[in-house]
Batch of 2 targets.
Target 1
Amino acid sequence: MERYRMSSFLKIRELDAKTSQKIKPQYRGNSYKISSPLIKRDFLINDSIKHFLEKFQTPKSLDEVVLEFEKEFDHSSESLKNHCSGIFKISLKKGFLIPETKEESISSIDPFFEPDDHIGDYKVISVISNKKLVDIYKVLHLPTNEIRVIKLLNGKKAANKKSYNKELGFFRLEKSLLKKGIGISAIYQLFDYQEQEQFAYMVLELVSGVGIPRFFRKSEPLTAQQEFKLINNVLRGFRELHKGGIIHGDVHPSNILVSEDLEVKIIDLGMSIDAANSGNEIVKVGGVLYYLPPERINSISIDKFSYRPNFLSDVYQIGMIVYFTLYRKVPFSGFIWEELSDQIQTKDLDFPAQTAWGRPISTEYKNLIKNCTSKIPTQRYSTAEAIYQDFLRLTDTLNSAQK
């Protein structure tokens, strides 16, 4: 009978009074925060889950814990066993509980290479990003003297070989999608792909620009013509992507780079899938919570995502991008996941009379956004191609309204 224990790195802290007051009354039963350097995000839990996890402060089997609860409550039932089993499975999945004999260690957080190191025919100029399992480098291609980017899956950062191989599967999928997307001007181009024992990397086109939120922070307020051009370029970019048979799966403003002349590049295909094979390939589930469509979320905080992305979920997120471009904010908010997910699933979008740029919101933009973000997926535009065609149909009206 296998026994399990709480992760050595797991911390359960009671929320302070100030933080608790920020939680809506219906969610205040979640009065503890659970965190660990081995877990990607913190979670809110209630007294019952805290009590369950603390049963495993010494190694026990699930059956032993259920027996302890039966004695505590002087009650035995199938529903109690099922309830404990459900919490147990989620706790194992999230890494709150681990097998008694499992060794734990915090993996390296350092990039694999440093400036002036060589990666094949490339010399590292600088480290652009050092996050989770991925390093991103600005590099010089020595044979051609061209500046490019290397995105590298760093095996030293992985907790174990199994987790590295899992991420490697997603990395290979992203590579295959970039190969499929050769010729799509809206995404960066792939030059090379290599795998070594401790890392894998892809060599990519160096693209200019910054994510939409940062672009708005550093630029002057958009004129009506600039606003129109940016939205046009975003919609045209996703039209290209969908026509090429690629479902992005994680559309949000920071995954769209904007250059000074308002040209756009769509980045980060790490959660994308090939529409032609979408029923068979592995899918990396996740995304920026504020932009998830209602059909892709679970309301429980411990397992937020459900369903595979598809063209209709991309369409919803594209509509949210247009909303953000006009208002510089997201329409939904929430201190905890249950609150945010409830708003996404039930609340209609609010359209203030004035955009963030001080202009009246046009009926055409409102209708376009509504047709993207319906709570019922089948009532949305079918693809980004359909969005763009409707946008072109509205072009004359939008242009004349902004003169």
Note: The chain is about 35% helix and 20% strand.
Target 2
Amino acid sequence: MWQTPFILLVCSILFAITWPVTVLLHELGHGLVALLLTRKEVRVYIGSYGKSAESLALKLGRFIFYFRYNPFAWRKGMCHYLDEDVALYRQILITIAGPVSSLLFSIILCSLTFSLDLHGSVKLILIALMVSSLIDLYGNLVPNAIPIHLEDGGITYNDGFTLKTLLRYQGFYRKYEKAFSLYDQEQYQLAGERFDEFIREGFEQDYLYRLAILAYLHAGRYAKALQMDKELAEKFEKNSDDYVSSGLLKMYLQQYEESLPDFTQALSLDHTNRSAWNNRGYVNTILEDYSRALPDLDQAIALDAEFAYAWNNRGLSKIKLGNFEAGFSDIQKSLKLDGSNSYAYRNLGIYYFDQGDYFQALTEFEKALHLDSGTHLLEGYLEKTREKLQTTVSTSA
């Protein structure tokens, strides 16, 4: 009776030990081949998708490693090479090298271990490493159209999807790469138009719709993005992130009540979607239903304690419910996690506005404006604060 739980426990421990090693070998494979086939700096991130902060940096010539201080985060990683002018066949080799290298290295180690007849525990760990590498190979080489969101706001896809794109669309890949580069350079309007053109030319792929929608969303073309979102729904099955995008677009178009079912649908497809929890909570704060917003924002933070937006939104809900000290503390936590978060400064401005400190409120709102002039509802708060200050000055005179 006790044997099954014990075996499961041993397997779990072995997987916890070997998976970070698999991630390291995988990204090292990408990195070494990229180092050989490109001319510029190659960066490997272990424990993040491009986060250099809170990481140990190791530099070996053009090769730079970033290891997150928290080893429990080492379940993911990425490799980024700075050379943009790389031949298609070289990109294919760099992409394949990741999942293949982790498996190849584990097979070599296993062969040596058994040929040398090393201790049984060593054999067990290396067998677990080989199984982990096989899982990594399958998980990465099977194309997945769900985007991976990078720390800098960009997006990428798994190795299989990248390979599929490289091989299937060799004829238009340079144009596609240029459009993707426009997106990464935050030229969202142009990027959206390029992705839209591909679709109109007959490349009706779900990921192109998603890229166009995201680009138009960032460009502030909400109606156009929502139109493409409807086209996506007609031709493909929407995933959890798609419903989050739908909800965001309706929110920006001030269709607040209509946006809530989209976030709820996103959660029905993926209960761990932190963005869905956060944005449903945020919309409820706009609707001034703070008691309903608070549990959603609690859940977003429970899923990701470093999610700055959820902290500042929860802070606003607490402030509006009269818990000023706890709300202020949440917003400060948000700023500690992300000092460039314009929404945290906006909510800090609301805190001071509700306290009657209109001068400080204006200061915080202007900080938010400086960071991001497109911060949602910020113009209205600035206008109300300036009116209050003008009234105060007029009364004093």
Note: The CA atoms of residues 53 and 366 lie 27 Å apart.
